[in-house]
Amino acid sequence: MQLGLTGRVALISGGTSGIGLAIAQTLAGEGCSVAICGRDKARLDKAVVAIKSATAKGFVADICKPADVAALVDDVKKAFGGIDIVVSNAGTHLPGTLDAIPDEALRRHFQTKVVGAWELARHVVPVMKQRGGGRFIVIIGQAGKVPQANAIASTVVNAAQHALVKSLSDELAPQGILVNAVCPSRIKSPLTESLTLHNEMYYGRSLEQQESKWGAEVPLGRWGTPEDIARAVAFLASDRAAFIVGANIDVDGGHQRSIF
């Protein structure tokens, strides 16, 4: 499908691997100039090569640091002349119970996924206004909709991301800036490969057995891929989604059972 994204500029945070990299590759394949950011220059350089686009560039930035975010948006604007699409994808899953998560880990989790997205929006909105509008898309893990005993930090922080998307969409829609969320679940990526699964610990199952159980819980009967998420992002970034705003789109093979 031709989505009409040729010539647009996309900035993806957390774009060096997994879902973020797949989003960058997909948007580049649709004709976007792509900027990715991350904290590690070597990983950035490797990811830029993997995107396979002459217009892809990497920018070193820590989304936890407001000064880095301000400099990132300014640098991308200077490099490409503007920004049309932002995908806030930085951050990871923070497993653990209430008394097992250090205060500093919780604060950084919130800073990355909520304050980082806030700062991205704050600095990019004036740039998008100059372009006549844009798209701001937040990737939000399933814990924000499906609370879990061993994921209280991600549950609270991801729920805050949903609140940010809804409130920000109300504020920015009149200015032609559409804010939405894509909500992955059961996606095979470097993140899920590194997780110690709560149910695996509880049932004493091997990772292979647990993966089979995860797949069985998905109505489509399989895990998803980062490319599944990337295709949904590309759609929301396009004019074909011009009347979708403030939405959270589940890309999960039917796994999540929440009704909103």
* Mean pLDDT across all amino acids: 89
3D shape: globular
Instruction: Please bin the fraction of helical residues.
Output: 40-55%
Radius of gyration: 18 Å
Main sheet: strands, sense, barrel: 7 strands, parallel
Tally of separate helices: 9
Strand coverage percent: 5-15%
As residue ranges, the low-confidence spans are 197-203
The total strand number stands at 7
Q: How would you spell out the order of helices and strands?
A: EHEHEHEHEHEHHHHE
Strand order of the largest sheet: 3-2-1-4-5-6-7
**CATH architecture grouping:** 3-Layer(aba) Sandwich
Give the CATH level 1 class.
Alpha Beta
CATH superfamily: NAD(P)-binding Rossmann-like Domain
Structural class: alpha/beta
How far is the first residue's CA from the last residue's CA? 28 Å
CATH-defined fold name = Rossmann fold
Counting structural domains, the number is: 1
Task: Please explain how this structure is put together.
- This protein has 260 residues and is α/β, with parallel strands linked by helices.
- It has one domain: NAD(P)-binding Rossmann-like Domain (Rossmann fold, 3-Layer(aba) Sandwich), CATH 3.40.50.720.
- Helix content is 47%, strand content 14%.
- It is built from 9 helices and 7 strands, in the order E-H-E-H-E-H-E-H-E-H-E-H-H-H-H-E.
- The protein has helices spanning 18-29, 41-51, 66-80, 103-131, 152-172, 190-194, 198-203, 207-217, 226-237; strands spanning 9-13, 33-38, 57-60, 85-88, 134-139, 177-184, 248-251.
- A 7-stranded parallel beta sheet has the order 3-2-1-4-5-6-7, with helices on both faces.
- Helix 1 (18-29) packs across helix 9, helix 3 packs parallel to helix 4 (103-131) and helix 4 (103-131) packs parallel to helix 5.
- The radius of gyration is 18 Å and the shape is globular.
- 44% of the residues are buried.
- Residues 197-203 have low confidence and may be disordered.
